[in-house]
Amino acid sequence: MRLGGRLQAAIEVLDDIETRKRPASDALKDWGLSHRFAGAGDRAVIGNIVYDALRRKLSIAWRMDSGNAHDIAYGALLSDAEMSAESIAAELVDDKFAPAPLDETRLAAWESRDLADAPSYIRADVPEWCASQLEALFGDDWVREGAALAARPPVDLRVNTLKANRAKVLKELVRAGAGEAPLLAGAVRVPPLRALGRHPNVQAEPAFQKGWFEVQDLGSQIAALVTAAQPGLQVLDYCAGAGGKTLALAAVMENRGQIHAFDAEKPRLAPIFDRLKRAGVRNTQVHANPEDLVQFEGQMDIVLTDAPCTGSGTWRRRPDAKWRLSPQQLERREMEQREVLNGAKRYVKPGGCLVYVTCSLFASENNLQVEEFLRENPDYSGVDAKPLWHAAVPDAGDVLPIFPSHGMVLSPERTSTDGFYISVLQRNA
Ligand SMILES: C[S@@+](CC[C@H](N)C(=O)[O-])C[C@H]1O[C@@H](n2cnc3c(N)ncnc32)[C@H](O)[C@@H]1O
């Protein structure tokens, strides 16, 4: 397919997402199924245009003075795809599958409008109702933080130290564009795509099949380190899901001590068994039944609660979720977070720690949630987050997360990670 056909496909997918309010991945998959002639390269470019357009939906629409799928898809080519109006026009000449060209008035708007004049939520590319949440966490920096959430993300890999080291993984993945990640001495990063490029499918690599690495954002890797899990400890991963953090904990614990991985939704645990096997993890028991946990009450050195959340910290990777999120969903997530914290606290031993993590950048899911927990649970105290950061990320140099009233906030802008909140609460001895 030439660029015209790919652009037309992206417009159709964007239309489908908008009209049926469905996830981008579903709409792209359906398009692929009904256009089987399209190759992997075509799908990658179509996906890039769709995701770029969704990440910057408001700012592109504002500059174009139009928010329809056709115009924001063109806007995506003009921004993240680094094309000029002339180069797009030249590529579309004689392409019978190309969409209608961009209207002159749209192009004139694009060229004359300055985003600096737009309202702040548009510059931040976030739903207007979310502005106050980001402002509560980031203060005056919130627009920059929002805008950074609208940029293309890298692909981060956690080297599985149970089986490999960074040099070994890099040797295998150098052709895929992998290099050393910032912040963590052991981590690997494939930088964000440029223009109409395509990310390698690192999970198809033999090194992945051998369990040498996992795809895991640097922020998530740091969250596992901030728990201060050590070989020999007893750890409960209370919201283990597919096991991303469980695997990271097992590696820092060098397969010694014991991890109990639990999730209230049994089907979510399904992928964990193969992942544990591939990674060579031997110190983890998986529990799908809450009654299994009774024996651990008051026994755990560390209880990790990687709580359900809006995922606002991962909007770079799932920009469609940004526009589907509603205040009602946020309220539901906050309720679930309270349930998780109150369910998990009973397993912490005196002197042990409850670690609360979200991949959200909303104050009400993060430090405000912790403030409420500490008010209601005087047997817990918040642990100062700064020393925890320095201990977990000793090579961070000047890079610092935000330290709100409790815990720490990682973000694309501050720490070049996804957005994460991590807070350690100690049960009084
Ligand atoms: C953010 S996800 C976990 C991701 C996982 N830790 C990882 O690193 O791959 C949150 C998980 O919390 C689980 N969950 C929600 N409510 C829960 C509860 N009350 N008790 C335990 N788990 C719960 C969800 O089923 C979901 O799998």
Automatic annotation (TrEMBL):
The keyword Methyltransferase applies. Keywords: Methyltransferase, RNA-binding, S-adenosyl-L-methionine, Transferase. This is RsmB/NOP family class I SAM-dependent RNA methyltransferase. It comes from the Bacteria. Residues 145-428 form the SAM-dependent MTase RsmB/NOP-type domain. Transmembrane segments: none annotated. PANTHER family: NOP2 YEAST -RELATED NOL1/NOP2/FMU SUN DOMAIN-CONTAINING, RIBOSOMAL RNA SMALL SUBUNIT METHYLTRANSFERASE B-RELATED. Coiled coil: none annotated. InterPro entries: MeTrfase_RsmB-F_NOP2_cat, MeTrfase_RsmB-F_NOP2_dom, RCMT, RsmB-like_ferredoxin, SAM-dependent_MTases_sf. Belongs to the class I-like SAM-binding methyltransferase superfamily. RsmB/NOP family. S-adenosyl-L-methionine binds at D263, D306. The keyword RNA-binding applies.
